[in-house]
Amino acid sequence: MRGVAVVAVALTSALSLAACAKDSGNSSNNNNASGNPSSGCKLADKPAAAPAGSTSADAGGKVDGSALKIGLAYDIGGRGDGSFNDAAAAGLDKAISDMGVKKDNTKELTASANESPADKETRLRQLATGGYNPVITVGFAYADALKKVAAEFPGTKFAIVDATVDGAANVTPLTFTEEQGSFLVGVAAAYKSKGCHIGFVGGVDVPLIQKFQAGFAQGAKAAAPDIKIESKYISPAGDFSGFQDPNKGNVVTKGELDAGADVVYQAAGKSGEGVFAAAKAANKLAIGVDSDQYNQPTVAANKDVIITSMVKRVDVAVYDFIRAFAKNDLTTVPKVFDLKADGVGYATSGGKIDDIKDVLEAYKAQIVAGKITVSATPTK
């Protein structure tokens, strides 16, 4: 039986390669010039490169953070989620390594699934009354609680990832252009799809995750105007279980793969583990999010299907905020962490997109130069 299966796979691969070779030989869409003749899509011409400019990262001089007491309030999943909570943790770890922040002077607390706003307020008060300053909150779900608690502790500096808090002078927003990074992995998905059919799986149907969907779809269609895109959310707005349910992530992904998608991009937190497992079971490809998930221990069993990840540099934002606080100059924190500020990007671990990196860099340069504007709202 194994011998029969091997022969069948070999024959299928040979036929696929022959079909791809025939398509690229008869097509006039510059697939070969774009460096990816195996794509099933009719690809648009690669854009001309444009000057990318310099990033706005504050890299100069050593900073002493040994006297700091830092509190970190994670969203559900916390450290070890293999996604953006882990990225925030990496920023704290780098501050410990680079600035001499004492591990014993840090405290990390984690939200529970579907907890009340009062629970978040209690967590933030616990950190503030414990003398932790600054206090960093990870996730837009902390916005309402932070607005209330920040007013109670005007002497404490807070930061919030993925949100702003209007009227709170002691709160620094750490926001990102997720749509820009998602645009680039959308291009990658179009170039790597064999059937010109891809998918997006979001954790919760909220404006933040819609930014991932919007950029991904725009990038894919810029690279391959005729591409077909499946889009599905695990849970509706208000139900945050969609970020914490690998089984549902698996089911939703299987539905998209059964519909014909062969590359799936997930923005679903811990539920992304189920997305990767479904892709591997179907012998399809996947794209990670937030961290370089190819190197994440939590998804190591399925990392061979991960062609890239949309890297949202929460680690950079957390580190830059801590560094600016230690220097007593929060004006150095970027207003938004975009492509230009190295706030978002894409991962190359595993070498699966090395052949199209020049294409991705060309699109990136166009975005940074303002020649391409990426929408943060999905097209209906």
TrEMBL record:
Protein's membrane topology: Lipid-anchor
Main location: membrane
Coiled coil: none
Region (Disordered): 24-60
Signal peptide coordinates: 1-21
Compartments it resides in: Cell membrane
Keywords: Cell membrane, Lipoprotein, Membrane, Signal
Compositional bias (Low complexity): 24-40, 47-60
Domain ABC transporter substrate-binding protein PnrA-like: 76-347
Claim: Lipoprotein is one of the keywords in the record: yes
Keyword Cell membrane found: yes
One Pfam family named in its UniProt record: Bmp
GO cellular component, one term: plasma membrane
UniProt cross-references to Gene3D superfamilies, sorted A to Z: 3.40.50.2300
Family classification: Belongs to the BMP lipoprotein family.
Name the record gives this protein: BMP family ABC transporter substrate-binding protein
Source organism per UniProt: Solihabitans fulvus
